[in-house]
Design brief:
The chain is built from 21 helices and no strands. The chain has helices at 4-21, 26-47, 54-89, 91-103, 108-119, 125-143, 147-164, 169-178, 182-211, 235-273, 278-288, 295-309, 315-326, 329-348, 352-385, 388-395, 404-421, 424-439, 449-458, 468-477, 481-509.
């Protein structure tokens, strides 16, 4: 009999071997591993008498892939277009200059950190780094100081929102895998990320003083003159593609939160009239499901029953019928994309062919991310089919695995995957795909959004030469491999540990249950 943890090990080793040794594209590696795990799980299910066809083992990989694409595909594609338009229109440059003007040149590292923090929400980290490095180099030419601190400040701001705040692929997929409201993921992710970014820039100052690495010329890179202020869009229009979707999604999150309170209050009134309580009803549902249902799922079923039986839903419950349209992430990102395109057209006056080309190039880059992200979700889903979650829970005492233990478990698994294969996004996707199986029957004392931020924190730990971000930082910054290991790697550890610490604090003080 193949143990679920052995199946997991085979799958992960296969991914690492294909990517690291054979240099196979990450999408092909993840899909291959997903099919292998699914076939191994099929063999074990057949031994236990579960009836399924061998072809089903392959078909369910495709089903999981399609489900993942349906959840995150449109958002990632639109985010790619938004990011490209913000770069080419000068909107991203305007945001950076606004930070510089607000904080002053002497606080340039803080301005670069803030710029990276904001821009890495809709724009991929490597693109943000490309944009901001010339500003760090320009600052050093004028002042002859703090070059390394500026580089690390960009990393601190950009890397942390890249791993915690949607619509970047990792956090977006974690929200989908764990069933987290996207508005809640954005807000809590940003709350966890900000202290981590601040801790990162403070640690960057220490590293700058310790190593005092000067700026070096980067071979093959020309220093270009920046655009004039009058050639850039206004700050309002530059920020609008970033802020508007966050506001739209947050509106529905707030309405849903108050709606839940309304429904639970009404459910409690009905329960008291019947001589019971909502908690007692939830316990009955959990018992009927043989502890395969969590308290949160039981309360969700009670709220839905109350809504179905209620002839007059409350104000907030009625409002959610409209906010769920306004706050739909696909619609919010589509409107943001149209705004970003309008800003680009106004600033650059491109021909129809040029406009079509920039959209096509953006979608091509986004398409690769969608394939890799959905492939990772498929792999994680097959690990769930193989009952890996149950096996890991059994290792830690079965049903006693709750609360803080689950946070550290998510953090630790993500960290191990990060060290092994280098991609934070893959670590987040695979770990969050495994977690639902471990949560069956568990009653977490906090919202699952904290489990997502713990996984995101773990995905920062152990970044080294198998991480593309390491090479982008080192080569673009003009650092040697040794200097990268001395600076980039420990900075990411600080970001991860600080994020995990904030997750533990917020999960305790503000559980959101």
């Amino acid at each position: 009999m193949i143990h679920p943890l052995l199946i997991m090990t085979i799958g992960i080793v296969l991914v690492i071997f294909l990517i690291m040794k054979l240099k196979v594209n990450a999408f092909l590696a993840l899909i291959t591993a997903a099919m292998v795990v699914s076939l191994l799980a099929f063999e074990e299910n057949a031994k236990t008498g579960e009836m399924e066809l061998a072809s089903d083992a392959i078909s369910r990989v495709a089903s999981a892939f399609g489900s993942a694409c349906g959840g995150i595909g449109i958002v990632i594609a639109l985010a790619a277009v938004i990011g490209t338009c913000m770069m080419d229109s000068g909107a991203a440059d305007r945001i950076v200059r606004a930070f510089m003007k607000m904080l002053g040149e002497e606080r340039a590292p803080w301005a670069l950190m803030g710029s990276g923090y904001v821009l890495a929400v809709p724009v991929f980290f490597d693109t943000v780094f490309y944009l901001l490095v010339p500003l760090a180099r320009s600052f050093y030419r004028r002042t002859q100081k703090s070059y390394l601190k500026c580089l690390l400040a960009i990393t601190a701001g950009g890397a942390i929102t890249h791993t915690l705040v949607p619509p970047t692929p990792g956090p977006l997929t974690m929200a989908a895998n764990l069933g987290i409201d996207l508005g809640k993921m954005i807000m809590v992710g940003a709350m966890v990320a900000l202290p981590a970014a601040i801790a990162g820039i403070m640690f960057a100052g220490y590293l700058d003083r310790k190593y005092n690495i000067p700026m070096r010329e980067v071979a093959g890179r020309e220093e270009t003159d920046p655009l004039k202020d009058e050639e850039l869009p206004s700050l309002f229009m530059s920020l609008l593609p970033v802020v508007l979707p966050v506001v739209m999604i947050a509106i529905h999150t707030v309405a849903s939160t108050f709606s839940d309170g309304e429904l639970l209050s009404k459910a409690e009134e009905i329960a008291v009239a019947a001589g019971t309580t909502v908690e007692a009803q939830a316990s009955e549902l959990m018992a009927a499901a043989d502890n395969a249902m969590s308290r949160g799922d039981a309360l969700k079923e009670i709220k839905q029953t109350t809504l179905d039986e209620s002839g007059s839903p409350g104000l907030w419950t009625s409002a959610t019928r409209y906010t769920q349209v306004v706050g739909n992430p696909n619609l919010a990102l589509l409107i943001s994309t149209l705004i970003a395109l309008l800003v680009y057209v106004k600033q650059r006056s491109p021909s129809k062919e040029d406009l079509a080309k920039i959209v096509e190039i953006s979608l091509m880059s986004g398409g690769v991310i969608i394939l890799i992200t959905a492939g990772g979700s498929s792999f994680g889903a097959m690990l769930k089919v193989a009952h890996v979650g149950d096996a890991i829970r059994d290792m830690f005492g079965g049903a006693e695995v709750t609360g803080i233990t689950m946070l550290f478990l998510g953090f630790g698994i993500a960290a191990l995957l990060k060290v092994a294969q280098g991609s934070s996004t893959a670590a987040m996707i695979i770990t969050s795909s495994m977690m639902p199986g471990m949560l069956i029957g568990l009653d977490l004392p906090y919202d699952k959004v904290y489990l997502a931020t713990a996984i995101g924190a773990g995905s920062c730990i152990g970044s080294w030469m198998n991480d593309s971000g390491f090479w982008i930082f080192s080569k673009m910054g003009g650092l040697t491999e040794k200097e990268g290991l001395q600076t980039w790697t420990p900075l990411l550890i600080v970001l991860g540990i600080t994020s995990m610490t904030m997750t533990l604090i917020l999960a305790t003080l503000m559980p959101l249950t």
